[in-house]
Amino acid sequence: QVQLVESGGGLVQAGGSLRLSCAASGLTFSNYAMGWFRQAPGKEREFVAAIIYWSGGNTYYGDSVKGRFTISSDNAKNMVYLQMNSLKPEDTAVYYCAADRYGLGNDYRNMDYWGKGTLVTVSS
């Protein structure tokens, strides 16, 4: 049984940083792309970042977070991280970790497994 559990969300001032963690169990990283998505109230779920393990570990980012967010992982611990720097109020959202078997991990419609999310609030 696949489980994804996010942690690390909270309240931060604009310009600050947070690191989100995703603990994965029941899956083999080498068969998946792991992605981070976010959803703000009243908005569609948005792609944030992905790391494609089955294709050599390439990483991809959504345009709105490029240069500010970094996705990484600790394969030995089955953990995926999202380092978020220079946070802006518009980054406020629930952040989700998701797994895409042999996919690119960047389309929420194609993800196979989801965590329950962690809330990030950025105050101005």
What are the defining features of this structure?
mainly beta; 124 residues; four-stranded antiparallel β-sheet; 52% strand; 0% helix; globular
Low-confidence stretches: none
Quaternary state, please? single chain
Largest pleated sheet: 7 strands, mixed
Distance between the termini: 40 Å
Radius of gyration: 13 Å
Mean pLDDT: 96
Query: What would you call the shape?
Result: globular
Question: In percent, how helical is the residue content?
Answer: under 10%
Structural class: mainly beta
SS summary, helix count = 0
Strand content: over 45%
Structure description:
This protein has 124 residues and is mainly β. It contains no helices and eleven strands. It has strands at 3-7, 10-13, 18-25, 32-39, 46-52, 58-61, 69-74, 79-84, 93-101, 113-114, 118-123. Strands 2, 4, 5, 6, 9, 10 and 11 form a seven-stranded mixed sheet that branches. It has a four-stranded antiparallel sheet with strand order 1-3-8-7, with no helix packed on it. The chain is globular, with a radius of gyration of 13 Å. The termini are far apart. The model has no long low-confidence stretch (mean pLDDT 96).
In short:
The protein is mostly beta strands.
Write the layout of secondary structure elements.
Layout: E1 3-7, E2 10-13, E3 18-25, E4 32-39, E5 46-52, E6 58-61, E7 69-74, E8 79-84, E9 93-101, E10 113-114, E11 118-123
